Amino acid sequence: MSNEQKQYLKKLKNTKIKILFWQILLIIIFIFLWELLVNIGVISSFIFSSPSRIFKTIIELINNNNFFIHIFITLKEVLIAFILGISLGFLIAIILYQFKLFARIIDPYLTMLNSLPKVALGPLIIIVCGANSKSIILMALLINLIVSIITIYNGFLTTPSYQLKLFKSLNASKLQILTHLVIPNSYQTIIASFKLCVAQTLVGVIMGEFLVSKQGIGYLIVYGKQVFNLNYVMTGIILLALISYLLYKLIVILEKKLLKHI
Amino acid sequence: MNNLIKIQELTKNYHTKEGEINALFNINLDIEKGKIISLVGPSGCGKSTLLSLISGLDEDYSGCILKDKIKTAYMLQNDALLPWLTIYENATLGLKLQKNITKERLEYVDYLLKLYNLQEFKDNYPKSLSGGMKQRVALIRTLAINPDLLLLDEPFSALDQQTRLLISDDVYKILRKEGKSAILVTHNIEEAITFSDQVIVLSKRPATIKNIIDIKFKNNDSIFTRRRDNQYEEYFDLIWKDLDMNE
Ligand SMILES: Nc1ncnc2c1ncn2[C@@H]1O[C@H](COP(=O)(O)OP(=O)(O)O)[C@@H](O)[C@H]1O
Ligand SMILES: [Mg+2]
């Protein structure tokens, strides 16, 4: 390796470290300012809580054996709804791609469902499924599924015509075209739809927990509001931010694996 | 009979919402085994259409295309390499799809990769290759399945002039060496003359056969030796005149 190349790599690494440094510094400043402004009374500790109060709330929740249960319940619901959403979305997108006429027939209904605020279905879901985890998962699924179908299907449609022609000229079967061309060609869109799906699933799960649950982070937030302890609300929000970041990161790992050719 | 394909009274119309498009009208053509044929004609006259009818991709036509059980393979203007496959995986794509991965075919692919100095890029992805190298990989992918007839639809027209000459010479030599038949669509008269045994001039849409010109040179070693032949200019003028009269 030449010296210049070494220097170039070193520069790349330095930039990375610099970015990480600033990211950590920013969060520290944010936490510090938050604490400070609350302590000197510029912003209300009752509404905005404070980092130390949130920390105390977390310790208290851990001592009451509630902390990990709330996280676990929400994570479980999110994961189930997410996996159901992307696998059903993927499957239905494939069906639509194979049966274009069917896709055209149901197109207006998909559009309608997509723009319908699914929360409006909340009461109906609860009456049908009962006030339990099932309702929450169904709620999240309703919210994430339509988006998954539409984005993945549109990804399939971007397959270049010259590549379809190549595959047909090589006598590829319909299944081969799907597995060797259409799906790999859509990796990028599929990953993008996963990212969308995670966000939508969190919305759905929290919405569901607001409506029915007795446990979970959404419940923590609602409970905090009811007893006028906004420390719970803030703790819930912070936990949600961490969870969504974590899930997002997991998808980025998958993305790096699938898109290593780019 | 020495004919690979016999086309009789071939007519093709496309139907679109805007109306009917007559693409080909009453084409009669014999394609001999081992011959390289060029199709020239104004753009949009129906050259690609003719290839896709011959390949069997499109079976909606009137008239008749008689062919034995021959295997055709396409090479397009776009190399159509799959960006998520390595060079080697791209080169062997046809074999994989046709479930025909044999030792013999793979050895042939290796031979071609070596011949075109692509061996060291085997495990790279297409994005790291130049346009010319990518088109060579497309050539290997086309030859790997051992086709009887190559359908070349303006395969060199996206390349710069220098690369274009080098690669068309590569293709010319390998077709000659292996005695393969090919149909080349091009709008480059020079390419048509130096590349083929026969130039077929098509009229504007709906394409009919305007003229068939047999090309004979003394030294057929490469497209460059053919280009230097005294006869070249004569052929050029002939084709030019046929094309010109259509405008
Ligand atoms: N699938 C299609 N549907 C309708 N019209 C088509 C289709 N393919 C080609 N055409 C029309 O047929 C004519 C011939 O096309 P093509 O064979 O691609 O021409 P060339 O290859 O000679 O440029 C053009 O006018 C084109 O617009
Ligand atoms: Mg064309």
How are the elements arranged and paired?
The complex is a heterodimer of chains A (262) and B (247).
Chain A: H1 3-39, H2 45-48, H3 51-63, H4 67-98, H5 100-115, H6 122-129, H7 133-157, H8 161-169, H9 174-185, H10 187-212, H11 217-226, H12 230-258
Helix pairs in contact in A: 3-12, 4-5, 4-7, 4-10, 4-11, 6-7, 7-10, 10-11, 10-12, 11-12
Chain B: E1 3-16, E2 19-32, E3 36-40, H1 47-55, E4 62-67, E5 72-75, H2 87-91, H3 93-97, H4 103-115, H5 131-144, E6 149-153, H6 161-178, E7 181-185, H7 189-195, E8 198-202, E9 209-214, H8 223-227, H9 232-244
Helix pairs in contact in B: 4-5, 5-6, 7-9
Characterize the structure shown:
- The complex is a heterodimer of chains A (262) and B (247).
- With 262 residues, chain A is an all-alpha fold.
- Chain A has two domains: 1-43; 53-260, MetI-like (MetI-like fold).
- Helices cover 84% and strands 0% of the residues of chain A.
- Chain B is an alpha/beta fold.
- Chain B folds into two domains: 1-70 and 148-230 and 240-247, 3-Layer(aba) Sandwich (Rossmann fold), CATH 3.40.50; 81-146, no CATH class.
- Chain B is built from nine helices and nine strands.
- Chain B has helices at 47-55, 87-91, 93-97, 103-115, 131-144, 161-178, 189-195, 223-227, 232-244; strands at 3-16, 19-32, 36-40, 62-67, 72-75, 149-153, 181-185, 198-202, 209-214.
- In chain B, a hairpin with a 2-residue loop joins strand 1 (3-16) and strand 2 (19-32).
- The radius of gyration of chain B is 18 Å and the shape is globular.
- The termini of chain B are far apart.
- The mean pLDDT of chain B is 92.
- The chains are: A mainly alpha (262), B alpha/beta (247).
- Bound molecules: adenosine-5'-diphosphate and magnesium ion (MG).
